[in-house]
Write a structure and sequence with these properties.
Length: about 60
């Protein structure tokens, strides 16, 4: 996974999932080990789908 804030590449399976410190436990957010930003794997999948759809439609 690439952090959306700092661009650091890391393995989300090894970095640990959510912080478990807030009321939204089990939120599936993966925190970057470099900057601490909370990245959402679901958002990454959705964003990838949008990019591939735009490519198929010939949009930039």
């Amino acid at each position: 996974m690439e952090c959306r804030r700092c661009g650091f590449e890391f393995d989300e399976k090894k970095s640990g999932q959510s912080c478990k410190g807030c009321e939204k436990s089990n939120c599936n957010v993966v925190h970057c080990p470099n900057c601490g930003y909370g990245n959402s794997p679901a958002y990454e999948e959705e964003f990838g789908f949008i990019i591939s759809l735009k490519e198929k439609l010939g949009l930039k």
